[in-house]
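Ticket 4471: requesting a sanity check on a complex prediction with aspartic acid. Repro inputs:
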Amino acid sequence: MQPILIVQGGAGDITDSRVPGKLTGIKNSIRIGIKILENGGSALDAVEQAVRSMELDENFNTGYGACLNTDGVAEVEASIMEGKNLKAGCVTLLHDIMHPISVARKVMEKTNHTFIGGEQAMNFARSQNFEVLPQGSLVTENAKLALEEFKESQAKGLDTIFSPTELDKKSVGELGETVGAVAIDVNGNIAVATSTGGITGKIPGRIGDTPILGCGTYADNEIGGVSTTGHGETIMRYNLAQRILQGIALKGVSSQKATEDTIKEMTQRLIGTAGAITIDKKGDVGIYFSSKRMAWAYTQGNQLIYGINPGEILKEDL
Ligand code: ASP
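Returned structure tokens:
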């Protein structure tokens, strides 16, 4: 089977000045991941490494550069899943850890559990020899600025995150930019990884869709894999990843149609916006977002196909 990797760098209201950094980061990520697949590596290794490269990159909302909660803390969370045995690892409320996706993978591989959160997840990370960085190491100037702006808008009475209404729907889901990757390897195994700092100005302890299976991440070799991004409170109530896969499985539609239709239905019904990347078991990809922008990329032969604006498809050599 021809291996395929697709990555996303977050759905949101990405300003023009941030577009080049996002595109460079997303291309970097796909080049790292596809090398693993082309050398016969596993989908699981490819998605983990693709996500790790974006966790290091401050252009994305996880690891270094993650969004801040109201206390100014970067609380990060992630999930990883493989579609052969439906095994998964999820972590939430980690701080000062650069690679939450790798902690999630350890939960999957080294414990009998699927989801660990908070200080106990920090202890687990320590027990697995993850470096806990000095407090505040993931906090960037841009993230601080975004929090200040959020607090100013709150002071003016604009609740743009937690209570989506018709009036503020333009703003919903525009403050985060999660990262994710979906891959199918030569053996037809599918894996998905998603990692995030959540949304700016979240209440400390808030958990989003990203570490929740069926919402931010899902992989099933018998159907496909999905990684989502956008307004977490909306995505988790809609079970977005699972609904996209059910569209493929039950309605028999393409990855693209299932991804597009499900996101449109969600935004129509619940207002919040989102984006998703999908690969079905045949290796067909689906990409769609109802937000203003979402950076995405995948490879086909020696071509790298990518975009960030609605309907945009750019190509270059790998
Ligand atoms: N889905 C993430 C969250 O709500 C944010 C994002 O994807 O931008 O936590």
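Notes from triage: Residues 19-38 form the longest helix (20 residues). Leaving this open until the requester confirms.
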